[in-house]
Amino acid sequence: MNHEAPILNDAFGISWLDFNLANVLMIIVSSLIVFIFCVWASRKLQMKPTGFQNFMEWLVEFVKGIVNDTMDWKTGKVFLPLGLTLLLYIFVSNMLGVITNGVVGHDLWWKSPTADATLTLTLSAMVIVLTHFYGIKINGTKNYFKTYVSPMPVMLPFKIIEEFTNTLTLGLRLFGNVYAGEVLLALLVSLIASGGLGLIGVIPMVAWQAFSTFIGAIQAYVFVMLTMVYMSHKVSSDH
């Protein structure tokens, strides 16, 4: 059975402005989960970390390693909060649709917000805009725009096209993997509910959930890694 997302049309009286209410809900849920986890993990800091604090410190070191792999730490340390936020937010968003899908009537309310290309392309566009911002801030406007005609002016159109392709590939890669996982999971659930697979269908469903969890983690890592790669191309002279 196909379920459609609830849409708010003509928002704020603007004829062309529509909101996907499920996306709005799940963006809020994802943000709250990440916020509560970070506050909980850092509320009682100790010299010998345990529990959530230990896990949070591991995450910080993990993201620090990603930054160090793409640029020198002196330049890249400012991007640690960005990488950590993206890693946690994207991973949590990917997992929400793996746990379950929530349908009210014929409207799909509970799902992964990253299973919508609008959100993933917005994230990728935000990343690309930030790379330009920090590129100009660190290198200066004149030196930054010189890179677009280096080593020769004929490179300008190719480098402009590259900015658009980076945005599309970064966002669509995340969307495609998460959306495909949710579609197959929904199909397995439908077959089990209809009796097509019987109880034995639980086995492939659980296996696919485990695999989707792995894919969700990998895609969060890939998104952060590519973010830092694109950032290093703008802020480092030795990339």
TrEMBL record:
Entry GO MF terms: hydrolase activity; proton-transporting ATP synthase activity, rotational mechanism
- What InterPro entries has UniProt attached to this entry? ATP_syn_F0_a_bact/chloroplast, ATP_synth_F0_asu, ATP_synth_F0_asu_AS, F0_ATP_A_sf
**Pfam families linked:** ATP-synt_A
List all membrane-crossing ranges.
20-41, 78-99, 119-136, 183-204, 210-231
Q: Is-annotated flag, keyword Iron-sulfur?
A: no
The membrane topology term of the UniProt record is: Multi-pass membrane protein
SUPFAM superfamilies linked: F1F0 ATP synthase subunit A
Subcellular location, record wording: Cell membrane; Membrane
Which keywords, in A-to-Z order, does the entry hold? Answer: ATP synthesis, Cell membrane, CF(0), Hydrogen ion transport, Hydrolase, Ion transport, Membrane, Transmembrane, Transmembrane helix, Transport
Q: What is its main location?
A: membrane
Q: Which residues form the signal peptide?
A: none
One term under GO cellular component:
plasma membrane
Please indicate which superkingdom the organism of origin belongs to: Bacteria
What HAMAP family would the database entry show? ATP_synth_a_bact
Concerning its family, UniProt says:
Belongs to the ATPase A chain family.
Q: What is this protein called?
A: ATP synthase subunit a
- Recorded source organism is Oceanobacillus piezotolerans
- Phylogenetic lineage: Bacteria, Bacillati, Bacillota, Bacilli, Bacillales
